[in-house]
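Q: What structure does this chain adopt?
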Amino acid sequence: MVPVTENMPAFAIVTGDDKRARKTIGNFKEVEARDAPVVAITDGQSDVERYADHVLEIPEMHPRAAAVLVNTHLQLVSYHTAALLGRNIDKPRNLVKSVTVE
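A:
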C-alpha cells in the first residue's frame, strides 16, 4: 500500500450531493489533513471544491453517464502522467487501486 504523503496526489470522484458524496468528502478531508495534494472530479453539485487543490469538472447529468466522463478524465490524467515521466504507456506496471465498500 502506498502511504498518503505530500508527494502522492489523491483523486476523489464526487458526483451528486447525496449520502455517498458526503461520505467521500469526509474521506477526502482525511487525505487533505495528511498534506497530500487532492484532485476532485465533480459535477459541482457538492462542496468538494473547498477541499481540493485541483478540480476537474464534468457537467451535471445522469449518474450512469457521469461515470463515463469521470473515467475519461482519469484516463487522460494517467496517459499524460505516464508520458511526462517517460514511462511506456502501453505497458503499465505496479498498479495500485483502492476501493471502499460499505
